[in-house]
Amino acid sequence: MTHPFFEGIAPVRYEGPDSDSPLAYRHYNPDEIVMGKRMEDHLRFAVAYWHSFAWEGGDPFGGQTFERPWYPQDQMKMAQVKADCAFDMFDILGQPYFCWHDADIRPEGADFAESHARFESIIDIFEQKMATRPVKLLWGTANMFGHRRWMAGASTNPDPDVFAYAAATVKMCMDATHRLGGENYVLWGGREGYETLLNTDLTAELDHMGRFLNMVVEYKHKIGFKGTILVEPKPQEPSKHQYDYDVATCYGFLQKYGLEQEVKLNIEQGHAILAGHSFEHELALAASLGVLGSIDMNRNDYQSGWDTDQFPNNVPEVALAYYHILKAGGFTTGGTNFDAKLRRQSLDAHDLIAGHVGAMDICARGLKAAAAMIEDGGLEDALAERYAGWSTPEAQALLDSDFDSIFARVHAGKIVPQPRSGRQEQLENYVNWFV
Questions:
Q1: Active site residue 18
Q2: What is the dihedral of CA 164, 168, 171, 177, to 10 degrees?
Q3: What is the pLDDT of residues 282-325, one digit of tens each?
């Protein structure tokens, strides 16, 4: 330990399902082979620096509840303490990756130059710490939603000076991500949307956002960054309507601006729910469109109706998520980032470890259930049976035909539909056999 914050907490180990330790992995065994691959290499867990270390326990109706040794966070010496404590936690958990925003790791400076210098100072510390540990960077990103300068957006801002500030910020963060060997770079447009159409030029804002993302891709190739550029969909909150609403909206945007071959998506469970979808819907659609990149694994409180960012605890939901990820071939550069935070009453260092331990176990159970379903093949068999009619030459000919010829066949009574059961309840029962 480099700091006493986690003092007395030993590195978490796999002890199996019979363990009675609250800080032991009961299901996450990094070396267990699942579908021919180590569990750690399937799941590719990452800790989110912002929720674990920058968040102070506030909610919309109340402020800070946590007391941490790196508060107040407006001092560089505290940012260094925060880095020490973060890497202590990485050592305890043994997860392979972490993620950050620029604003998580350094305090804001008096101007961009000072903020940049502070940022580089912490990146130096990260580089030194990573040189002596196996932990790697899954992705970096820029916080372009917290400071008041971003109140009307970043790349979509009506003020070109803010667009320029955003470009400089992303360049800085991409350089650092590249330097640390990051495997992805994420853009989450937290305020890339609008509050009212009364003062919003949709065409201009979308065009500026499209040009900005093209500049990101151009810079990726210029510096030789081999990682994946990811965009994260979210429908609302804080903006009334955000331009990266869901997977389908993002894909349409990427197509319009010629980016569908260059950019993939980082999909979050909580954001899927806010968009009125299930997590597996968003994952399945992204896989179908060829843009599934990485995931943020969390959950929302279904009674609250907003983005509560809780650690996952629902094995069936997680199993269906990994089912679609495995069907798509699994992660390449992406992984499972815990974009999740403690409840504001969970005050202790022990709670921070326990939240991640439980989440990693839930994901391990979900992964194994998903793999078992794929190996059993029941869902694939049911799918093949349901669509078997399309395998006949007559059915394929329909796709090469036209309305007039199809009309003639139907009118002559040669095609008479006979509805068949979709067997939804039976398939839902099937999933529950594995979870």
A1: no
A2: -130
A3: 999 999 999 999 999 999 988 887 889 999 999 999 999 999 99
Three-class SS of residue 80? helix
| Confidence (pLDDT) at 236 | 87
What is the rounded CA–CA span in Å between residue 185 and residue 179?
Answer: 12
pLDDT digits (tens, 9 = 90+) for 256-278: 999 999 999 999 999 999 999 99
Q: What would the pLDDT profile of 381-393 be if each residue is shown by its tens digit?
A: 999 999 999 999 9
- 268 a known binding residue? yes
Express each pLDDT in 114-168 by its tens digit. 999 999 999 999 999 999 999 999 999 999 999 999 999 999 999 999 999 999 9
Q: How far, in Å, are 40, 43, 84, 117, 377 from residue 33 at the CA level?
A: 9, 12, 33, 44, 19
Tokens 């102070």 correspond to what residue? 56
- 293 SS3 class: strand
Question: Is 400 a residue of the active site?
Answer: no
Q: Is 307 annotated as a binding residue?
A: yes
Cite the DSSP H helix spans in 110-261.
112-130, 160-179, 202-223, 247-256
Rounded to whole angstroms, the Cα distance separating 181 from 313 reads 31
Q: Provide the H-helix boundaries in 45-75.
A: 49
Phi and psi dihedrals of 145, rounded to 5? -145, -20
- Rounded to 5°, the CA angle 101-104-109 comes to 105
- Write out the two tokens for 43: 């799941």
Q: Does pLDDT of 189 surpass 90? A: no
Q: 59 labelled as ligand-binding? A: no
Catalytic residue chosen out of the listed positions 27, 42, 51, 101: 101
At residue 294, what are phi and psi to the nearest 5 degrees?
-155, 170
Residue 128, φ and ψ in degrees, nearest 5: -65, -45
For the chain, the residue count is 435
Q: Which of 27, 42, 102, 104 is catalytic?
A: 104
- Residue 233's pLDDT band, with cuts at 50, 70 and 90, is very high
Q: pTM surpassing 0.90?
A: yes
SS3 310: strand
Residue 150, CA distances (Å) to 113, 142, 161, 198, 218 in order: 18, 12, 11, 19, 23
51 is in an annotated binding site: no
What is the set of domains in the chain, with CATH numbers?
A: 4-376 (3.20.20.150), 389-434 (no CATH)
Is 301 annotated as ligand-binding? no
User: What tokens does 205 get?
Assistant: 């804002």
Nearest Cα to Cα of residue 98 among 122, 64, 62? 122
